[in-house]
Amino acid sequence: MAAEVRLATDDAIVVTGAGGFIGGHLVAHLARSGFTNVRAVDSKPLDQWYQRPADARCLEADLRDSIVCQAVTTDARWVFNLAADMGGMGFIEANRARCMLSVLINTNLLLGAMRHGVERYFFSSSACVYNVGLQRRPDVTALREEDAYPAAPEDGYGWEKLFSERMCRHFSEDFGLATRTARYHNVYGPHGTWDGGREKAPAAICRKVAAAKLFGHKTIDIWGDGRQTRSFTYIDDCVDGTLRIFSGGHQDPLNLGSEELVSIDDVVTIVEEIAGVRLKRVYQVDAPKGVRGRNSDNTLIREVLGWAPSTTLRDGLEQTFGWVYDQLRAGRLDPDARDAVLSTA
Ligand code: NAD
């Protein structure tokens, strides 16, 4: 199987989930890099896409439909599947069936890619595939790729990702379709979901601190006891790592994450420092909070691709906070989230 893939700038590239966070950044990056034939696909109405580069062909379509998947993969050479019905822990824990239905997207896209002779296919998996039994302590041992088995992933969302990873592998083994899979660890940055209920911890914390700064709140609500730990990947590193995994020769899933382990309290402290405020913390111990600790072990991706992320959490949060603050100041709140955000103590 070829390790390196190269395209002419007018070869067709499909990016699904392109109206969302990571897909939007990937399309923008490809457009900036001179690719002129990018098909950007998402089920969201076009006016709700986070980014819409003028050079890309943007299509609103539901990829759970097999006919749609056959159509969008026609004559394509590369496919990046970044579409999924997903969100932060609040969304995932309350919508397990919806998360699992994303299996239709990957299945139908793989079938389309196989039928149309796509050269390479990328699947966006998640750290939620890892065995939850290994993530019960804040001082967690970083997760290596083999820790996904024996399988006991996050219910719903994690099971769908693990199943779809395996389907990619077997399409490769049985049908010769070259696939690549990244296991993303908590990606954050500008132009992502920051309100409305699907946002993840860094964006939610940036929004709460920005609201405190703008509206004079004195306290901040934190989901859990603040001691749960994670590592967070800045979006530029995510796009760079995605392209490295995609064009590299390693077929099995690879962690794409940061090894900078922090607690949620640490994230709040950094964002407070960036914003120049100090808030009283109110811990909501019954709120959804996911596993107790999770970190990425990047040994394998360093070994096989020589890749490591380059953005520190502080630098990434500075960019993210600045963007969220500007959104809030400009009044670009989801109307359904408006009252909750403005009254967040
Ligand atoms: P996102 O929610 O911003 O983007 C996903 C996009 O998929 C959305 O715009 C959504 O409208 C679209 N979509 C959902 N169902 C669809 C359908 N049936 N047809 C067409 N489009 C559909 O999420 P993201 O953060 O950009 O995540 C991209 C991918 O990376 C997803 O597969 C996600 O599971 C995975 N991932 C993300 C993270 C993270 O921290 N952001 C972590 C692990 C894995």
Overview of the molecule:
- The structure is a single chain.
- This protein is of the alpha/beta class and 345 residues long.
- It has twelve helices and 13 strands.
- It has a seven-stranded parallel beta sheet, with helices on both faces.
- Helix 2 (66-73) crosses helix 5.
- The mean pLDDT is 94.
- The protein binds nicotinamide-adenine-dinucleotide.
- The site of nicotinamide-adenine-dinucleotide has 26 residues, from helix 1 and strand 5.
Level-1 CATH class name of the largest domain: Alpha Beta
User: Rough shape?
Assistant: globular
The major sheet is characterized as:
7 strands, parallel
Number of E-state strands? 13
Describe the secondary structure blueprint for this structure:
Layout: E1 13-16, H1 21-32, E2 38-42, E3 57-60, H2 66-73, E4 78-81, H3 89-94, H4 96-100, H5 103-115, E5 120-126, H6 157-175, E6 179-184, E7 187-188, H7 201-215, E8 219-223, E9 229-230, E10 233-234, H8 235-247, E11 254-256, E12 262-263, H9 264-275, E13 280-284, H10 299-305, H11 313-329, H12 338-343
Parallel strand pairs: 1-2, 1-4, 2-3, 4-5, 5-6, 6-11, 7-10, 8-13
Antiparallel strand pairs: 9-12
Helix pairs in contact: 1-8, 2-5, 5-6, 7-9, 7-11, 9-11
Bound molecules: nicotinamide-adenine-dinucleotide.
